[in-house]
Predict the structure.
Amino acid sequence: MEIDQLDARIITLFTDDPRMSVLEASRVLKVARATVQSRLERMQRSGVIAGWGPRVDPVALGYTVVAYCALAIRQDKGHDAVAAALEKIPEIQEIHTVSGESDLMARVAARSNSDLQRVIDSIIATDTIVRSSTVIVLNTHFDGRTLPLTRAAAGLEP
C-alpha cells in the first residue's frame, strides 16, 4: 500500500503518543476527525499498522542479555516443525528463515550469560537443531525503528 504525507504524520503522531484520541489527533493535524479515523482504519486493513498493543521491554522483566543464534536445522524435520518446537521456548523473541550458512536466525532474551546457556541448551534439546552459533549483543543503538521507513515511503525527508 502506498502512503502519503498525511498518513506518515498520523503514524508519527500515534507512534509518539499511542494513547492519543482520534479527536485530539485531528486537532493536532488540523484535519477532520473522520479523515484521521478512515485513514487509520485503511492502514490497519492493509497491514501498514500492525497493532496497537503495549510494547514490553524485556530488560524491565529482568531479561538483560540479548543474543542472536544462527541455527542449522535437521533437514528431515522441515522449517515449520522446527519453528513450532522453538515457539515453545519463551525466551525466543523472533525467528526467521535466512539464507547463508544457517537455516534460521533467532533473537533470544536471557537473564544472564549462564541463563543464555540454559536457553541454548533448551534449543538444542528440541532435537530439531544440528548446530548453533550465538553472538551476544553488547549494546543496542536503536531498535524497532519504523518511523524513518514510514517517512521514506511517504516521500518525506528523513
About this structure: The radius of gyration is 20 Å. The mean pLDDT is 95. The chain has six helices and four strands.
